[in-house]
Amino acid sequence: MARFLGVRVPSEPFSMTRDCVDWEKQVIRAPSPKTVKQGRPFRLVPLFPPLRPYLEALWEATSPGTLFIFDRLRQRSSLTSDRHSTWRAVNLRTQLERLIVRAGLRPWPKPWQNLRSSAEMDLLARFPPAAVFEWIGHTHDLARCGHWQVQLDFRDDSESLIPMIS
Fold it and tell me: What CA–CA distance (Å, rounded) separates 122 from 50?
């Protein structure tokens, strides 16, 4: 979800309930604990086709009576005491880095933030900036200061490999 929707991990998935997904309208209401104080408790994000099969599989794997989409995330051992029952007690970065190493790659800095940032860049390549900033949940100035990346696409259809900046 961080890669395709640009959600903030772990706070937003931790807070998503089953009623956050509107399958008919193909939209997700992403709760945003970070922006509640600014009067933006959630944002609406399209349910993009690449994400749909994964979300459907997750939906089928959880019982209909389950309130939270990522219920197993909420049942982690780090959340067993009452004082640690919030998303702040969830450390998903360490596990993600282990999976990256197991895949034979080197972990990169701030993996969740970088997944969110790359989602934003992909969306900006296909949709109007105003829509993307609304979906991601920040302003143009904030995006420019910390989220924009140069993405290189190396094509080998010529004699020399020339990076195509997208």
Answer: 13
SS3 150: coil
Type and span of the H or E element at 55:
helix 52-61
Least confident of 50-54, 84-88, 93-97: 84-88
- Residues 6 or more apart from 9 whose CB is under 8 A from it? 1, 2, 92, 112, 115, 116
DSSP 8-state symbol, 81: S
| Residue partners of 27: CB distance under 8 A and separation at least 6 | 44, 45, 46, 47
Whether 126 contacts 120, CB under 8 Å: no
Tokens 């599989």, residue located: 57
Mean pLDDT of 61-85: 66
pTM flag (> 0.85): no
